[in-house]
Amino acid sequence: MSLANSLAIVSLVVASIAAGPAAAEVLAGSYGNDVGCAGVRLGYQDSDAYVVLTADGVETYGSGCRFAQQLVTATGTQSLSSTCFAEGEEGTTTETVKVTNKGADGFFVTIPGLEEIGPLRSCP
To answer: What is the pTM of this model?
Structure first.
């Protein structure tokens, strides 16, 4: 093996180690409860039970939060800095929203001061 080949192999190994494990993919599509997914299909909200989660935020009938960074598919909990709004309130607040991917059990969202929302599953 030549010195050039050895250096190429070492460079490849170092690059692989530096890159670490493959990054999780950005969440694709919409996830929601039954009412939320129906709203996605119809194109509008018509119930207080409406909840939809996307890579960019979570939305309920009268409130929502936009994430500062996109939600990824990794299992476990992601804490996301978010700009939140609520119907009937002026302005927005900055909150840390926790989104937990429990695999087959779906996604669960925790917004400070509210009960956990979920399970939210992929909308057909």
So the answer is: 0.78
